[in-house]
Amino acid sequence: MLEVKNLKKKFSNNLVLKDINLSIQEGERIVIIGPSGCGKSTLLRCLNGLNEITSGEIIYKGKNISKKETNKEEIRKKIGMVFQQFNLFPHLTIMENIILAPVKHKLMTKDEAIKKGKELLEKINLLEKINSYPKELSGGEQQRVAIIRTLMMNPEVILFDEPTSALDPKMKQEVLELMKSLSDLNLTMIVVTHEMNFAYEFATRIIYMEDGIIVEEGTKEEIFNKPKSKNLKEFLKSVRE
Ligand SMILES: Nc1ncnc2c1ncn2[C@@H]1O[C@H](COP(=O)(O)OP(=O)(O)OP(=O)(O)O)[C@@H](O)[C@H]1O
Ligand SMILES: [Mg+2]
């Protein structure tokens, strides 16, 4: 459903993504790992149009979505993103935060959005926070609300960029559990994370990136138990220490 072909991304003269080729099927749960600065966030940002690509193509359901003239808002309705820093609006309540985009984009009426928002908040046991402001919630709660906000748009793909790296261990677990529970929804998910245990339990495929290229990809058994490249072996050793 999502094809990346010969993707290159430069920031001025810095070639950050060198030649990325990737083919993702509907319902896959992909985890991207790799050292800091190798281009993981940049790749996710290219996929939902937050970064213009320098060359190559991104094809989504047969359509090239990486052209300059592509309506990026349309892409982001289908390909949602969850960030490390939650990015909830501080001056809006939890309910206002989660109904904002679907109502603005006319995906549903305000009443429908409130109904759906309540259902989703109830599922994550945060219904009582409906009228609270983001700063009144813990980091883990805010991140779970941010995931709900993305789900409100009924996306087909969700990109997660280190969703738990700003959280302490207990809150991390709550967020990771919520992400695992989304597996039932048959969403396609692409997650950048340093949580290797989570990657092992969650991923249908793991991609190892380094210095702007995909060095190795495979099942969790292939990547964690039988890594081929010396660099991946060293990377795994470093994150396990
Ligand atoms: N907007 C930007 N302008 C200029 N350079 C950028 C920009 N965004 C990213 N870069 C550069 O691109 C490279 C890759 O950054 P990126 O954030 O994609 O790495 P990453 O793999 O996500 O790293 P981390 O694990 O630390 O989050 C870095 O050298 C970074 O400085
Ligand atoms: Mg990053």
Explain what this protein looks like in three dimensions.
The protein is α/β, with parallel strands linked by helices. The chain has helices at residues 40-47, 72-78, 94-104, 110-123, 139-151, 169-181, 196-202, 220-225, 230-240; strands at residues 2-11, 14-24, 29-33, 55-60, 63-64, 79-82, 157-161, 188-192, 205-210, 213-218. It has a single domain, classed as 3-Layer(aba) Sandwich (Rossmann fold). The protein has nine helices and ten strands. A six-stranded mixed sheet has the order 6-7-8-3-9-10, with helices on both faces. Strands 2-1-4-5 form a four-stranded antiparallel sheet, covered by helices on one side. Helix 3 crosses helix 4 and helix 3 packs parallel to helix 5. Magnesium ion binds next to helix 1.
